[in-house]
Automatic annotation (TrEMBL):
Domain DNA/pantothenate metabolism flavoprotein C-terminal stretches: 187-286
Gene3D superfamilies hit by this protein: CoaB-like (3.40.50.10300)
Keyword Ligase: yes
Coiled-coil segments on the chain, per record: none
Protein name: Phosphopantothenate-cysteine ligase
Amino acid sequence: MSDPSASSSTSPKWSSDRFFQTQSAPSNLAEVSSAASEFVQRHIKEGRRVVLVTSGGTTVPLEKNVVRFLDNFSAGTRGATSAEYFLSAGYAVIFMSRQHSLAPYTRHYSHTTNPFLDLLADPATHVHTDSPASTSGEDNITVLKQHVAHLRPILSAYHHARTSGLLHTVPFVTVNDYLWLLREMSRVMQPLGRNGMYYLAAAVSDFFIPSTNVPEHKIQSGKGSLVIEMDQVPKVLKPMVEKWVPEGYLVSFKLETDPNLLIPKAVGALQRYGHQLVIGNDLNRRKFEVVFVERLSNTPAAKTEERGGERPVERLHVEGEEFSATWMRLADSSPDEVNEGGGKGGEKELEEDIIRELCSRHEQWIAKGTAGAASR
Ligand code: 9Z3
């Protein structure tokens, strides 16, 4: 496969308009849209804030009858964990995630790190002593005692999320579907105005293959090497900020593997798209360290000073504008100690702090809007 960054391709850049005019929408878009709209309208009526959390990686299929595809790295841990903290903060959550990636609550029992069946007693050997009706163990399956304390609060929160109508899920697989659904969810959430937050943690492919260039059938290996040409995915954050949800509080993530690029790339994204906050994370340190990059005018002023000692805040001057970079770290963790799937041993999770900070920034964003309206 050729390296797209080294390619001499002359393909024109795609505008988002051209993308949506030519690339087909998911077949169930209307259905997904109306269910999400009902969810949002209910929460608007109840005066609740709503957050769209995107999560997991996006694929680029190489064939229409897809046998092979390219994928972006993400287990969906960040998004699933964050959704839980948003729910406990009282938000209604639209969880738009890669099909089969980690989900709120069930993520604690990921099949690879903490298989669900390992929690249960072997029915062949376990005898129920507290239930005479089922001493044979045929009617009940028992959770092993050592797992009960951890499972109980997760199970309660899971059932609460299911029955309270505060969590709405929207799955995607391909990057095309992701872009269509992001636009649709934005449309549906636009009536929330400043009460809507957009937390874009999904790992979105930078490249895609326009549908006219995707072969119908499985690519055959007879011709030797495979060269793939991909076009750049349109930068939808721009229309999202300018047209789709101009009043929303919009947070994007920037993933890098070279730590020196993290802050400059985050600043670049803020300059290009004009949204409120970029959370930068390094691939290998993402579980215990992130950096909040924002325009200094959006950085909660009092907190910047107050947090100076606790959280290092850098001030940056770029092309006549001022930005801040605030590091947020889990105390005393190292990459080896932090579990994939998270939360297994009830340890502190970085998302708890991230979401607390976001809720307070969102609160100020809403207050600014109200103050602005009052002074007009
Ligand atoms: C992230 O940076 C997420 O935090 C991770 C989470 C994907 C690193 P895990 O699922 O990982 O917890 O294992 N997401 C955004 C990545 C991304 O695609 N950003 C684009 C970019 O960096 C901009 S939208 O250019």
